[in-house]
């Protein structure tokens, strides 16, 4: 979820095919078209979350943690690689289901124009097809950004602040060594073998219960404990997600 330098050698974030700085010089007549489809999310089964989203996201999706050195919280929107179970054939997200901010931010994001730069610039994916010349809500009035652009910038700034809070949360989780490799087994009466899901991390309830009193008190005071329990409660949604996948597979057969 980190901001990515435009000229970075590493791959771009999830969903992004390119990253171009938005400017009145290069995009004087460009506008933002209404987004009619979220089909760009169809090839993913997990979307990064910020801790700010835990309270609402935990009512809709299982929240797990990724693998690797810098794991991020993830909302599971599917259980098979490349399958978003909340998207219909027209690219519409399921009505009343929470849409993660990472999805709503696209095709914009804040990024460093050079690795050594300390400033973040508003950029967009010019392959997304929603920022186009002569169409949509204008992004500039002469050299000045319009309200549309100001609102986009504000949203991206708030998202970056949430990302920083999420990083701090994850650093504390690592220090407390609360995360373990996750495994969920689901048995359906009409299936011969249980389904087993791995490849994510989760909070160990045993380790949580064995925290020192001062550590647990600090987590309550700084809000971490509420976030941890939002994650733990959300894991109960893995079974309904499996049912959703089973029904989708049956319908496709």
Domain tally = 1
Number of helices: 7
Low-confidence stretches: 1-10
Terminal CA distance: 36 Å
Gyration radius (Cα, Å) is: 20 Å
Strand order of the largest sheet: 1-7-6
The shape is globular
Task: Name the helix and strand elements from N-terminus to C-terminus, one letter apiece.
Answer: EEEHEEHEEEEEEHEEEEHHHH
Average predicted confidence as pLDDT = 90
What does this structure look like?
With 253 residues, the protein is α+β, with helices and mostly antiparallel strands. It has one domain (20-252). Helix content is 31%, strand content 17%. It contains seven helices and 15 strands. The chain has helices at residues 54-57, 101-105, 147-176, 205-209, 213-221, 224-234, 238-252; strands at 20-21, 30-32, 46-48, 63-65, 73-76, 108-111, 121-124, 131-133, 137-138, 140-141, 144-145, 179-181, 184-186, 195-197, 201-203. The strands form six sheets. It has a three-stranded antiparallel beta sheet with strand order 1-7-6, with helices on one face. The protein has a three-stranded antiparallel beta sheet with strand order 8-2-9, with no helix packed on it. A hairpin with an 8-residue loop joins strand 13 and strand 14 (195-197). It is globular, with a radius of gyration of 20 Å. The two termini are 36 Å apart. The model is unreliable at 1-10 (pLDDT under 50).
